[in-house]
Design brief:
It comes from Methylobacillus rhizosphaerae. The chain is built from one helix and 20 strands. It is mainly beta and 266 residues long. The protein has one domain: Porin (Beta Barrel). Strand 4 and strand 5 form a beta hairpin. The two termini are 21 Å apart.
Amino acid sequence: MRHSLLLASILGTFAVPAAVMAEEETSTADSTSPHTVTYNIGLTSNYIFRGTSQSGDRPAVQGGVDYSHASGFYIGTWASSISWLADTGASGAGGDRAYNSSSMEWDIYGGFTSEIGETGITYDVGVNQYIYPGRRNSVSGSYNADTTEIYGGLSYKWVSAKYSWSPSKSAFGFEGRGASYVDLTLEVPFGESGYSAIAHVGRQEFGNGPNEFDYTDWKLGLSKAWDNGIVVGGYYTDTDADRGAFTYGPVFSGKENWTFFVQKTF
């Protein structure tokens, strides 16, 4: 649940997250070419997406590849190890575990980004498809975590806002068409030091699904980037989510967390 490094640099979002934020990118294309391809690989102590753990409070391995064109068009894909769908409590009909096995999240996304005139304001629109390969329990009925989101965002200097909306009949397994997420982020670089501080607040709502599952999440963090494409950092995250709604076995995935990561972009 993370967008590309390109989107992270534009919107200041730790994805999903989906997916680790990178402040700088190193292009594999020649500087005179309109084409840019970047790759990234990383390790995080806990895969946090919108305030909730996707890896059962355990480490996750992540990586992806992104293509962008000078016109503003981009596409990309990203994947992470997960455990939440196979953890006890991610249930379908009758309370049965929805997925007998599922250990990966795979995102495919594309969109367009550009500056509005010479205002310094950047807009970004696109679509992200979240795919969860695995073996579903036939007893769980129609439970399916695969989710489509359409998003749009604006950013100006250190401030960004993004709105994501799902046309799917369910979002991440929660039944109800029209789920949405609002993301407000402040990312402040400390001069040319490579250090950046980030503050974020988001609101997840599940459309015409069960409102008791709606929640707000927030994050505070610090990262350090080097010219060689390595980024390290850490974040504090928490939510006001109903603990009964997001409990997978003994682990409450929406509780407060301290997360640390390292990533290489090339």
